[in-house]
Fold:
Amino acid sequence: MKKIRCAIYTRKSSEDGLEQEFNSLDAQYEACAAYIASQKAEGWVLLPDRYDDGGLSGGSMERPGLQRLLADIDRGAVDQILVYKIDRLTRSLADFAKMVERLDAAGTSFISVTQSFNTATSMGRLTLNMLLSFAQFEREVTAERIRDKIAASKKKGLWMGATVPLGYAADGRSLKIAETDAEVIRTIYDLYLNHRNARVVKEAVDALGLKTPIRELISGRVKGGAPFSYGHIHYILTNPVYASRIRHHAKVYPGQHPPLIAPKVWDSIQDQLQGDAAKDRTFTKRNRKGAKVSASPLAGKIVDQTGDRLTPSHSKTAKGRKLRYYVSHRLVRGTAPRDPSGWRLPAPELEDKVADLIRGHLKTPEVHASILVDATTDETARIAIRLSRLTAVETAADKDAKRPCFKLVERIEIKPGEIGIALSAEHLAQHLEVDAARINEDLLSFAAQFRHRKRGVETRLIIGDAQPEIDTTLLRNIARAHRYFDLVRSGKTFTEIAKAEGVSKRRVQQLIELAFLAPDVIRAVREGRQPVGMTSDRLKRYAFSPIWSEQRNAFAAL
Structure:
């Protein structure tokens, strides 16, 4: 009789009780071992290795015990997997589908000792999928409950974890003042109250020799001990925790911890900071109806990964054309050092992309159906109509029609790889003609992929799942290079080609080298996958096939 090698997998989501001599993992293991013993007559044999995962969620496959089990399955050491319940193996239907493929490839099956079904039949597979769907549903509901608990706790002013702000120390579900660091915070606020200028505060902080606190991370790496950056100072000046308040997304609630800065003083500083951000770096223009509108409608609403605001700026071309940008504020200060983390983004393109993201978000069925809490059928229909009017613009050049989208923006955060947008409940409620308290705040924030790409002097923003951009100029130059190369092969000189093409001889010599690019490089250009900033001249120096190097050098000598 053929032996069936059986492995037992056990898992427990939390670490509670694992320190006990006989815990949940042991109970699961014994139940599965008893089942294997009952099938001894069928040739079932229990493998000696245990595959246990204690304190790990079933929502991910990144579990040491599971990974060891899958590795043993891949090398053909396991014929049968036994689990106490199917959700011990995974709580994700997608992960289970991937796991089944690996099991089928290895000829391995699995059994749940407390749930009877046969995956060899269609009804058994249906039952299995239903059980996994409910397991995944339970995990998602648990996550929602945790998010709701955090929101409710913050509404009561409780501290719910994360990095403790400088000047405080964790004290259970609250914070207590850490006097040593608290003096640094008070000094920064006093400097701002005296000077009313963040740039001067930065210079004064550096002059005093103040440094960021040194922290040891869980990984063992030490962080801090550096001068305060502009972004860090701005974050300290705008953090409501110092006025005994707790922030949760766009909402701010009274906190239960003692304030470091008097709330009235903190509020006055916010008014000053917002006034500085809105000062008219934003030149105005007139719309089609003759009314004055801001030429930079996102001014004061964009921050980068350091918390520094992006302010409107502009430059002029040789022909007098005005080019608008949004620039990290630390880059436009006259005395600011060069900061490689700062942003300089083309304003028209960023505004178009933001408007498109907002319109795309408001078009989703989830927003149409759930943006209004406890909405009746008639209210949902009216909301859908008003949202459709707001998102109906399809012409990218119609700037005035996109301005209602900009008015909805409360905050935009840009960081490497991602742009996050938070909409204002009040402004959206005004547009929908409903009470702002009924707006579903969970649908007001969303994010998209964000890439900042340069080609020569040109800057492109790629947001969301945009298709790669094809550099048509570069492709045309490669095509011309092949045409010039064919003419040389036919006996033409560079001078004759230049005269026939209406270009200089030097231009022919420059472009013809592109005819010797390796095929994989040309394929990358055709698909828009060439390296960022790769122009014709840089591409020639970047990648040539070594097989053609001798031929290329011969032509370069002509």
In short: Confidence is low (pLDDT under 50) at residues 541-552. The longest helix spans residues 122-155. The longest strand covers residues 445-455.
